[in-house]
Amino acid sequence: MPQGHYRVGRLSQEVQREVNDILLKRVRDPRVQDVTVTGVEVTGDLQQATVYYSIYSDLASDGKKAQAGLEASTGLIRRELGARLSTYKIPELFFERDKSVQYGDHIEALLRGLNKD
């Protein structure tokens, strides 16, 4: 595996671990209290990171509140990452809701419906 892929993967894991920790311990915004980071994708140049998250609620209003809370907390999260990571530049963060959990629940419900018939 080329050196760049290893570095991107390692940085993705570190960002995921640290953002989860920052959300639990440092961010006091009630809109993000039920947010769990499920994955991070960092671009090859390490300049941008897309943080995928999930929340317990399926309500659209809760999803919008969580997104707004994360966007409002981006500056704090980047500052904390700067103190915790040993990289030259901290990637710009973008938050996107992870739909895979909801999709998995939908597939599971469809399978249960098949088993009833």
Give an overview of the whole structure.
This protein is of the alpha+beta class and 117 residues long. It has 4 helices and 3 strands. The chain has a single domain, classed as 2-Layer Sandwich (GMP Synthetase, Chain A, domain 3), CATH 3.30.300.20. Strands 1-2-3 form a 3-stranded mixed beta sheet. The mean pLDDT is 88. Keywords: Cytoplasm, Ribosome biogenesis. This is Ribosome-binding factor A. Pfam families: RBFA.
CATH superfamily: K homology (KH) domain
- Provide the β-strand percentage band: 15-25%
CATH architecture classification name: 2-Layer Sandwich
Describe the strand arrangement of the main beta sheet, using strand numbers. 1-2-3
How many domains is the backbone divided into?
A: 1
- Round the mean pLDDT to the nearest integer and report it: 88
Low-confidence stretches: none
- Count of helices? 4
Largest sheet: 3 strands, mixed
Distance between the termini: 48 Å
CATH topology: GMP Synthetase, Chain A, domain 3
Q: Which word captures the global form?
A: globular
Task: Give the total of beta strands.
Answer: 3
Question: What is the alpha-carbon Rg in Å?
Answer: 16 Å
Structural class: alpha+beta
Query: Helicity level, as a percent range?
Result: 40-55%
- By CATH reckoning, the class would read Alpha Beta
| SSE order | HEEHHEH
